[in-house]
Amino acid sequence: MLGTPYPIGELGKPWQQAEKDAWLVSQQIKRSYHDDVLCRFNDYPSTFKKIQYGELKYKDNQLADKNYPLLAFVPSNWQSQLPTILITGGVHGYETSGVQGACEFLLVHASGYLTAFNLVIAPCVSPWAYETINRWNPLTLDPNRSFYKNSPAQESANLMAFIASLGVEFLAHIDLHETTDTDDTEFRPALAAKEGTVFSDWGIPDGFYLVADSQSPQASFQKAIIDEVMKVTHIAPPDGNNQMIGADVYQHGVICYDKKALFLCGGITHAPYVTTTEVYPDSPKATRDICIEAQVAALEGGLRYLKQL
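That's the Peptidase sequence above. Prediction below.
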């Protein structure tokens, strides 16, 4: 099914700067990164150290300066003999449970895993997009397609520089995301308009699923996460073509992408165990709290599996 024409640009013509400017002017601040995220860390476990690894500097749709500190947390007592795990949320800022799930895990659960791992947690990689409930940054760039050398996306470039500065190899990377109805009603139509292509609606999976790395799928790792999440919420079934979001189902609740080839956040390390969570907050079977609980369950399922290696 073809989507309706997007209100910015002309059908079949890629956007130029005028269209990108028109898109930015149409965006509005809808919630507060300061209130929803930064203030949650006024008090956090002493087992972690807070690091500001960068700052986004943007102008909003009224050309006012907007600065966003980028936060990450590392163990206060880094133990070099332990494997290191990366946890990221909010690479797509509009995907709320990815941000809030990372925050909840850090504040309540993470300290219990520090005897087994060094945990590096970046709870909100794209705070401007969090505030405006967007997939893109103000330059109409998708940070989760921008993890490459000399990236023009500040969100991606700052995170890559921070990860490189740690000078460690990672055992695993779990990246927390959502798939929402607005993927098909707003964000993918906007992308098609920007690129001068035609949007085709493939439907949104109803439930939780994972996106493994096609270069290292790690089926048992993915299954351990799915099994834990099933205690909290339902797992998305495949469509009639045995696919989800246009990709073949690899195993129950799991599809695969080539993380590095697509410049995804999941490709920024050489970790052998990588996955991206996807919850569906618009499901009639889900709530905001269930989605956050599912993100935490995914992290705990993955970490418990890794502890047994």
